[in-house]
Model the fold of this input.
Amino acid sequence: MSNSSLLQRIQDRQAVVGILGLGYVGLPLAMRFVEAGYRVVGIDVDPKKVVALNARQSYIKHLGQARIAEMMDSGLMEPTTDFARCSECDALLICVPTPLGRHREPDLSFVVNTMESMMPYLREGQVISLESTTYPGTTEEEIVPRVESVGLKVGENAFVVFSPEREDPGNPNFTTRTIPKVVGGHTPPCLEVGVALYRAVIDQVVPVSSTKAAELTKILENVYRAVNIGLVNELKIVADRMGIDIWEVIDAAATKPFGFTPFYPGPGLGGHCIPIDPFYLTWKAHEYEMHTRFIELAGEINSGMPRWVVLKVGLALNEHGKSVKGSRVLILGIAYKKNIDDSRETPSAELIANLDQLGAEVDYSDPHVPVFPVKRRHRFDLASVELTPESIASYDCILLATDHDAFDYDLIKQHAKLIIDTRGRYREPAANVVKA
Done:
């Protein structure tokens, strides 16, 4: 069976699209295919997500209830936990996590387990697309052999592509439709199908020569950011020792109209991409007897930021005649970046853990995260504290970790005894503000 029949089904909007993983990547993608008129089968191992969607409830805040209701009311979206529904689908898009293990080694268990669950239901005429960020070679080594183990021939009667997700939760300037989509195929017929599938719902599709090239493209994007953030984080420490405001320096440098892109320091890296993905390349490079020194150094600097911030907290409290032990500390922001509810890999978890270990009494406030979510490494029985003049004044230290626009920064500054600002939100010098 050639790819012509599948191409025709895609063109006619008759293809059924299966989305494996209904999280921050899979759910917006499902929405986009529904908007374009495709029937979507959304598969997730978490039954709570299926229940929420059927009840028209959003579990990802920035997507909103109205958009969920619109998708479900279309009659084109069918959420389920049943992998047997894969047999109905012409396209199967894998959008599952690719975290790191305890020693910063790739953890492909979500990808592998998803493929193993799909395999009994694979058939001729399907395209399988891996969207999860991973090291170059994953599609060839983990996806293609499993597809062919059930008697299919990739490039002839089944098709495999890699197309990395490029979601930026909460960014109002870009949507799933408007972010260009990179696609690499295992064979030319695979690429043709992949391009046709994504071109039906994405404004610009960028074909590359192989799945490996597509895999490395996404890694490069995140390495670029991780290394540059590591650079400004290191410069932040140098500037701090010199008594220079690093945010002032970056803003001044950014006035240069060429040759400079501003990156800003913070309390550490968060999100699923930048703290994790570069280490997938580091691990794979060892197979080729290569050492990715820039990546590893940036990783060391960025992962050390929470400890440096806690040191600044200790020094600032000391100046106020207090020790960390026994001090009441309120962390502002649990989400890894402002104005969203996504707390994956948030540095705030490390800040809480470090301060707790030193004997501080730690609370947090985040209007987007009402209860502290369960983490792989951290479990805190905490709920968001409402910011009032009284509550702010009751803490020995306010640690600004995520600068949500919803915070009343004037109110905080007016009533806080001490503020540790890791985001450069308070630009004017103040007696109760310490930048970190």
The mean pLDDT is 94. Residues 225-303 form a domain with the N-(1-d-carboxylethyl)-l-norvaline Dehydrogenase; domain 2 fold (CATH 1.10.1040.10). The longest helix spans residues 211-242.
